[in-house]
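Re-running Geranylgeranyl diphosphate synthase type II to confirm reproducibility after the cluster update. Everything else is unchanged from the original entry.
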Amino acid sequence: MEHYGNFKDELKKRTDHAEEVIRRWLPEEKGFARTMAETMNYSMCAGGKRLRPVLLLECCRLFDGDEALAEPFMAGIEMIHTHSLIHDDLPAIDNDDYRRGRLTAHRVYGEAMGILGGAALLNYAYETMFRAFDHAPGDARVIQALRIMAEKTGIFGMLGGQSVDVENDGKPLSKEMLDYIYKHKTSALLEASMMAGAVLGGADEQELALVESAASDIGLAFQIRDDILDVTSTSEELGKPVHSDEKNNKITYVTLFGTEEASRQVEALSESAVSSLEKLNRKNEFLTALVREMAGRRK
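Result of re-run:
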């Protein structure tokens, strides 16, 4: 299982496909609100790993689902994720000038358009996902997938996690609160991706619970890995500044447990995620390889 074919080639194929799907669903840059569409598209086309749409499609494939149904959701989840990055970079939150090697949206289009463009992207995600009904009118799976997306994005999901993160910035944190932030800020959208894909593929409740558990573990592992890379990687390899957690007095898994113990926890979470997927009695070897790769990544 460790070496799925040539993993890098397979991942590139799927990332390229996700990229093509995403670009197909972007708003047209025309009319009086053209600048807002430009702001949305500037951030959407800035590259990125496209992990969420790839995971969504692979979970749909795991249950032999209709891929055409998954496509508006692949675009939608990336819009939700990108909206969170635009807003994260704003002066009021992280005040970042660069992301993915180029100027952040508010630096190019101004702060007001950063706020509005981010909000518009969040809403456009739902406009896009609702269009799955064009393909399958009234389909209960689409309704369930939309509900998962909404819940995992809002106050009980990603946005809730971001609010707790912002409110406690630079303050000492307990492991419980740090876990809450990570599980909401990072795991929630990975759960949304994998669960929506599974639901669209026709997963039942028990299967969905296993997918959620795997996604939750992999989200936490992914975020702890981020903490480790901030300490151990170089700016060149990571593509963003290192030691930023230390500089911002951020409490992370590394400050709480040290690099070795944090690495052990990543390993344990990764194994737990894989074992949840294996209980499904279905095979998607690429998905399993991707989950392992996310925990062991170098950037």
